[in-house]
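Troubleshooting: if your tokenizer reports a length mismatch, compare your output against this known-good record of 346 residues.
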Amino acid sequence: MAAGAEGERRFGAGKLPATVLEELLGRFTGGDDARLLVPPGVGEDAAVIDFGDRCLVAKTDPITFATDRIGWYAVHVNANDIAAMGAVPKWFLASVIVPEELATRALFEQVMGQIHQACGELGVAVAGGHTEVSFGMDRPLVVGQMLGEVPHGGVVRSSGLRPGDALLLTKGMAIEATAIIAAEKRDELRSRGWTGADLDRCAGYLDDPGISVVADARTALAAGGVHALHDPTEGGVATGLAEIAGASQVGLEIDGGALPVSDESRRLCAGFGLDPFGVISSGALLIGCGPEAAGDVVSALQGQGIACARIGTAREAGFGLRLRQPDGALVELPRFEVDEITRLFA
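Known-good structure output:
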């Protein structure tokens, strides 16, 4: 494609394609700062800055797909990325931007109350932020910034995966997507025969099994032997796997039959033609650990009531990213340039 044509390319909703983002980060970030231990990079969950015996871990993430409990969402998705670096979430800031048509005191009170509640659940302090009424929007937007800290030697990176490591996944695929579909398409699903109780349970996936992975990360790290953590969000577990493999420069052999997904999640995704492997999956945590540690990590998580399954093995980079099908055949790991959930709103 000619350079001019590439510059005019329009992207779909969701993350930028990894190849585009990698090229842009290479051109427009960086600088010689020895204290920036983890700079911007595809697959890394947060920045890490050296403060002597401790490190500051910083993350920013917006909430764009969900409108219900948007403030609560913003806290938890940012805290997840802090936890995935081995750190403890400590301080939260938020920019709350509301369209003119919806800008009531009651809405600001609702969103800020959700932020207060979520921070209380995690022991995080609300440290500041910004509120604004804007135009050209059709829904509220919350951009969160979470700061955390970790002892200098305790940083865990997505790039720490090693050939031979076991790959584990907590809870399952499509947790967040299940809650979004149940909430956003409730009337349509009722007309298809879903009961109100079923949809309430699916919308409740935000809390059970839950979209927070803070406890998942702490439990796995305490068990020992963990080399890498990664929080798969937009683009689902498939994209999360590609990101952790790219950051670590390894190949992956994934067991398609071992990928956990609830029957409800599978049914909801199938009802709208969505692939659970590529749909937004906050609530799941990818864990890379030494093969000898895998059993202990799984047992520790299960002991805390957190489901965990071994889904594959890291290989040398030349192996590529491969998915083993139930019949034993190896195929290329599916790629999702755009999160499957965006098709729900097309």
